[in-house]
Specification:
The structure holds 2 protein chains of 2 kinds. By secondary structure, chain A is mostly helical. Chain A is built from 11 helices and 8 strands. In chain A, the strands form 3 sheets. A 3-stranded mixed β-sheet of chain A has the order 6-5-8. Chain A has a two-stranded antiparallel sheet with strand order 1-2. Chain B folds into 2 domains: 64 residues, no CATH class; 110 residues, Cytochrome Bc1 Complex, Chain D, domain 2, CATH 1.10.760.10. Classes of the chains: A mainly alpha, B mainly alpha. Chains A and B meet through helix 2, helix 7, helix 8, strand 3 and helix 10 of A and helix 1, helix 2, strand 1 and helix 3 of B.
Chain lengths: 276, 205
């Protein structure tokens, strides 16, 4: 009986086997791509080129610079002048001296202009490097500063009314649809388990997704040969969203970073990571 | 006297509360103003990209709430009215060109050459031909689109219309309105329609 069935339906069996093989091949191709990226990351983790940016960042932090010839060791990142350890896990936050909520990069700019006396135009001449001769001090400083929050949990407060307002504005921006393509941040980052091409997309509205994403930026981007910061990450997201240029250190950029950072609370910071 | 004094902290906290407990519409207005001051025109992406049409505004309003059926119907009706079908009545172009358009990710970004190629980047979100394994999952699989639905005139019209303006068929779709926003030309929409609907397209093998 069983041999009868076997002989009667070889075509179906073959078609089924072929279908399964094809499905398996697709799954293998896709799994192997993310597996290969994971392996590549692992292999390079001990020698993450981010270290080069960290070394330059430490120098920049300690060097006496600007018309006032002072180092950034007087810069208060929120935990007191010169305190770097753990500072990134508490940012963005409200700073009374500036009467403004600031993220890491905006705070660094504030210290450069008010404490070192560097003009804003000079300080922001190169905010994003090009992976070559054009280097950004913000990228180097950020790499060094965030590295000293490794292993610590994100702990962003919403105590001051301006912190609450920044979070709420950031949330509105996240869901704001516009541009030629009707895209909002949430188009790609509002659901679990989605991808663009083969790139996994974190759901930034939920703690798990926000933590995975936020705790790995800033990151060294292999494809660009450059250390990239959170300000760059948002600027490049909006480029692909077909929006205009997000201004470096703008209130909108800080509000959105506040939304993402706060959603990542409780996640262990591991950056600067290595990314494709 | 005691009771009068005890009112003061209550009043103060109420006043302080006003600063942080702004209503949702106040925050929306602040967010729009913040965005206007936080972006700058660059390349082909002007500040008008931040100006929402009625559909974008409603879809933003309901982004975290269930879209009421009557609002969905209103959005779909308004968008359906924007669809312009080709004057020659031909909805299917060349599926081979359609495949190129589906693969092309450039277009409309501030970094893109305004004279350069503009694609639909369909593979970013959809599985389409079985040969392309690098596809996204934000949208449904379109493999065997025509074969499973039939190749008739009505389905052709639906496919063309969906690419032209997705919100006409599903309010607040994640899919760009390629015709409505002049992202693709009429010929390009025909070519992508052919990729989905031509019986010879790899999509339908």
């Amino acid at each position: 009986m069983s041999s009868m069935t076997g002989r009667a339906r070889p075509g179906i069996v073959a078609a089924f086997a072929l279908g399964c093989a094809l499905a398996a091949a697709i799954a293998t191709a896709q799994n192997s791509t993310s597996d290969e990226i994971a392996k590549y990351r692992e292999a390079l983790q001990d020698g993450n080129p981010a270290e080069l940016w960290e070394a330059r960042g430490e120098e920049l932090w300690k060097q006496k610079r600007g018309p006032k010839a002072v180092s950034l060791e007087t810069c208060d990142l929120g935990l007191g002048p010169g305190v770097v350890k753990g500072a990134y896990t508490r940012l963005p936050r409200y700073f009374a001296d500036a009467d403004r909520v600031m993220d890491l990069e905006t705070r660094l700019l504030w210290c450069m202009t008010t404490q070192q006396g560097i003009s804003e135009a000079d300080a922001t001449k190169t905010v994003f490097g090009d992976g070559n001769a054009k280097r950004s001090d913000f990228e180097a400083l950020a790499a060094w500063i965030v590295e000293q929050s490794q292993g610590m949990k994100m702990n962003v407060a919403l105590d001051h009314p301006k912190e609450v307002e920044a979070y709420r504005i950031g949330e509105k921006m996240f869901y704001y649809r516009g541009g030629s393509h009707d895209f909002a941040c949430t188009t790609c980052h509002g659901e679990d388990g989605k991808r663009i091409r083969l790139q996994d997309l974190p759901n930034l509205t939920q703690p798990a997704g926000a933590q995975v994403a936020y705790t790995t930026w800033p990151a060294y981007r292999v494809s660009q040969g450059e250390l990239r910061t959170m300000q760059w990450r948002l600027n490049d997201c909006f480029r692909q969203q077909r929006f205009p240029n997000l201004k470096f250190g703008s209130d909108g950029s800080i509000a959105l970073i506040m939304f993402l950072a706060r959603n990542a609370n409780g996640g262990v910071y591991t950056g600067p990571a290595l990314k494709r | 006297m005691m009771t009068r004094l005890s009112i003061i902290p209550v009043v103060i906290s109420l006043l302080a509360g006003c600063a942080s407990n702004a209503s949702d519409s106040e925050i929306t207005a602040k967010a729009v103003a913040t965005m206007k001051s936080s972006f700058s025109a660059r390349g082909q992406a002007g500040m008008d990209r931040l100006d929402q049409d009625e559909t974008q505004r409603l879809c933003t309003d309901y982004a975290t709430r269930k879209l009421p059926p009557e609002v969905a119907a209103r959005i779909e009706k308004a968008n359906l009215e924007t669809i312009r079908y080709p004057a020659d009545g031909m909805l299917l172009g060349d599926w081979k060109n359609g495949e190129k358009i589906a693969q092309e990710g450039r277009g409309k970004q501030f970094s893109d050459d305004p004279q350069g190629p503009v694609g639909a980047n369909c593979y970013a979100c959809h599985r389409i031909t079985p040969q392309e394994l690098s596809y996204g999952t934000i949208g449904p699989s379109l493999y065997q689109f025509g074969k499973s639905r039939g190749y008739g005139a009505e389905i052709q019209k639906y496919a063309y219309g969906k690419i032209f303006n997705a919100d006409a068929f599903a309010a607040c779709s994640n899919m760009p309105r390629f015709g409505q926003h002049n992202i693709l030309t009429e010929q390009q929409i025909k070519d992508v329609t052919a990729l989905l609907m031509d019986p010879k397209s790899p999509v339908n093998q």
